[in-house]
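for the writeup, i need someone to sanity check this before i put it in the appendix. the sequnce is what the collaborator sent (i think, or maybe the updated version? ugh). structure was predicted straight from it, no edits. if anything looks off just tell me and ill rerun, i have time this weekend
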Amino acid sequence: MLQVRPQIVMGSSAPPMSRRRRTPCGLLTVLLGGALLAACGVREEAPARTTGFSTAVAPASTAPYVIQPGDDLEVKFQLTPELNERQVVRPDGRISLQLVDSEIAAAGLTVEQLRTTLRTAYANQLREPQIAVLVREFSQNRVFVGGEVGLTGPQPLTRPTTVRQAILQAQGFKDTAYPSQVILYRQTAGGPTSWQVLNLKEYPSDAGGDQDVLLAPLDIVFVPRSPVADVGRFVEVYIRRLLPISPSILLQ
């Protein structure tokens, strides 16, 4: 009786296509998993406080405005309009006006104090001078908003404004913003710079959730980037740009 032995053909067979395609997806899973774990491990904690800096930012002062160098002033005479002038306060704090021999020190005075000074200075040239002083432009009454907002840059501070209002004037938070850790920097007069971390994620209607404060001239508001946005940047830079994998393969 003939016995037929099965023939074994030796040779290597190519692995299935599905197996070759799983390798990039597995690598992608590992990288995405590590990135997401790193993001989840980020705690919402305030940055380390700098020694010697005060973290208590006081509300802006409601005292009368004090004229500063660089302010644009308009001086108006009720009975003699030909003497009306606009003057920019020089770096030395002085202005020069018609019919007044000496220069007038304006910086450091309130508007009412400067008005009284001008009435005294014109007392010899005019009978009962009626003078008004208007501040048309404020040189230092502005704040700066930067970071993850729609429009970064300086903003005029012509009325009481809170941090949240300044961010809204800067077209609001971006999707990548981290509103629970908004940083406010303030240069105190004659002292060091102070800073405070504000949680603006909650709204005033939520009890105890809002930390909005009034701004002072030359304050800096910085909105940092969120950890989730950092993960998105990781995927864009380290996966889509660096790995030699076609997007069509990743989706299979």
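The longest strand covers residues 131-137. Strands lie at 72-77, 85-88, 94-95, 104-105, 131-137, 142-147, 153-156, 182-187, 193-198, 220-223.
thx in advance!!
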